[in-house]
Amino acid sequence: MAGAARPADAETASSIRDAVRSGHRSAVEVCRHYLERIAEDDGRWNAFTAVFRDEALARAAEVDRHRNEWRDRPLLGVPITVKDVICTRGQPTTAASRILAGFRPPYNATVAARLREAGAIVVGKTNCDEFAMGSSTEHSAYGPSRNPWDPERTPGGSSGGAAAAVAAGLAPVAIGSDTGGSIRQPAAFCGIAGLKPTYGRVSRYGLLAFASSLDQIGPLARTVADTALVLGVLAGHDPHDATSVDAPVDDYTAALSGDAAGLRVGVPRALLGYGDAGIDSEVLAAFDKALVALAAAGALVVDVELPHAEHAVPVYYLVAPAEASSNLARYDGVRYGARAAAAEGGDGAGSPLAAMYDRTRDAGFGAEVKRRIMLGTYALSAGYYDAYYRRAQRVRSLIRRDYDRAFDTAGPGVDVIAMPTTPAPAFRLGEHLQDPLAMYLGDVFTVSANLTGLPAISVPAGFTAARLPIGLQLVGRAFGEATLLRLAHAYERVQEGPA
To answer: Least enclosed by CB within 10 Å: which of 27, 133, 340, 492?
Structure first.
């Protein structure tokens, strides 16, 4: 079924908002339309872990009642999905894990609260790799999501359900999280836009942590304009999050000038030859074509050097699991989530309580989460900390220094760095399940933005001969989302869009 097109009638968030704002459509009408589409089609894609039909319709009715007084809210009446690692009060939030089965948080994540304040209507939670650990949504207690362009292929991960929902027309906008490419890679695989903001630009309060120095929340949408619109809602300082930066938020929508005149785009050509798997020839051809399109939009394309970026994958797969092994220690079966029964008297090696911990984690965590916890615990253990974790952090600093030099006006002075989002298009479900290393190497172009904290966006960049989407990734300066979105929007306007 390769080459299946997305719905031709799929709408944008801004068009829905304008229709509700003007009274041409009611929020209830819009909400019911998307809920019906989810009910009819999600059996094919498995994009959702939970659908909030009653709550969504009640919220839509509230929007209609207050339409005149709320008319200036930027997402008035817009249905939106939230990845199942983001807390929404009183609603299932499981991180697609058995260990959090039945968990309903008593509070909203800051991003969920801001979406509500902006007039949005959360219609459901989207599927993901367990605790956001994966690149295919196959590591989910709910089963894998499927790519709307080819149901036999992955939509990517870990925000695969979010990308599939938008690509299939089940929602105009989705909120995901990105620890090593988990927004951008699914966006590329599903032919939509996806943005990872600068670390600290969007609050992480209420996000179930995977790797705290890497995680960021961001939007996935059909257009760059919708991405800018939603980022404007999510961005801003939050006193509940110590990593949230108190810095002014740009008007991202106003930044979409339609041209890239005066912008310098760097291309790390040496990096494009890195990786045992190499880059798919069709992906590389699409990237070369994208560079021509960027130049046509007014940008100046120059070469840059990122000599340490080739080490980003091993650095990431030491730092991220180390942080995960610490963050996931809280899931012990005592305070919330699932609890396994312990044998009376313990397991022979410890107390009954310790046995309960062990059994809960053994039954609750999936294979990939266990793998990463073990990798991280090993890297942090006595005798190995200096050899692995500390060394990885030092190389991480070198990677950030390379980007700083590329952006430095005393050097190349580029505004944005361009590269493919992924080295290959969407792979078949099951293709890499028995080869984790092959899965990890697919992150070669995305993990650096997380290690450095820089903003990055993936936008559609054409198709393979089999009609599988290809993504172009643009990486910007810290808190340079306005410039990043301006270039992405200019590229979107000049390049040939998806059918």
So the answer is: 340
Which of helix, strand or coil describes residue 293? helix
166 located within any domain: yes
- Relative to beta strand 193-196, strand 456-463 is antiparallel
In a domain, 196, yes or no: yes
Q: Which distant-in-sequence residues (6+ apart) come within 8 Å of 346 by Cβ?
A: 352, 354, 355
Helix (H, G, I), strand (E, B) or coil at 125: strand
Residue 428 covered by a domain: no
Q: Which helix (H) or strand (E) holds 74?
A: none
Residues β-bridged to residue 388: none
pLDDT beyond 70 at 349: no
Amino acid at 424: A
Q: CATH number of the domain at 22, please.
A: 3.90.1300.10
pLDDT of the residue at 9: 61
Question: Would you say residue 453 has pLDDT above 50?
Answer: yes
Q: What percent of the chain has pLDDT over 70?
A: 95
Q: What is the C-alpha to C-alpha distance for residues 384 and 173, in angstroms, rounded to an integer? A: 43
Q: Give the pairing of strands 300-303 and 416-420.
A: unpaired
Whether 61 and 104 have beta carbons less than 8 Å apart is answered as: no
Which structure tokens are listed for 165? 């929902």
pTM for the model: 0.95
| Residue 278 clears pLDDT 90, i.e. is over it | no
Query: Which residues are tagged catalytic?
Result: 83, 158, 182
pLDDT in tens, 56-114: 999 999 999 999 999 999 999 999 999 999 999 999 999 999 999 999 999 999 999 99
Residue 351 confidence class, pLDDT cut points 50, 70, 90: confident
Would 379 be classed as within a structural domain? no
CA distances from 279 to 173, 268, 274, 370, 408 (A): 30, 14, 8, 30, 28
CB of 260 within 8 A of CB of 299?
Answer: yes
| Whether the Cβ atoms of residue 240 and residue 471 lie closer than 8 Å to each other | no
**The domain containing residue 249 runs over which residues?**
13-254
Measured CA to CA, the distance from residue 4 to residue 2 in angstroms comes to 6
pLDDT at res. 197: 98
CA distance 175 to 171: 11
Distance CA 115, CA 184 (A): 21
How is 394-412 classified by DSSP, letter by letter? HHHHHHHHHHHHHH-TTTT
Query: Structurally, how many domains does the chain consist of?
Result: 1
Confidence at 275, pLDDT banded by 50, 70, 90:
very low
CA distance 235 to 224: 16
Who contacts 404 (Cβ-Cβ below 8 Å, separation ≥6)?
Answer: none
DSSP 426: P
Q: Which residue has the tokens 């988990």?
A: 182
The predicted model gives 480-491 an average pLDDT of 98
Query: What letter would DSSP give residue 50?
Result: E
CB-count burial class (<10 Å; 0-12, 13-18, 19+) for 167: buried
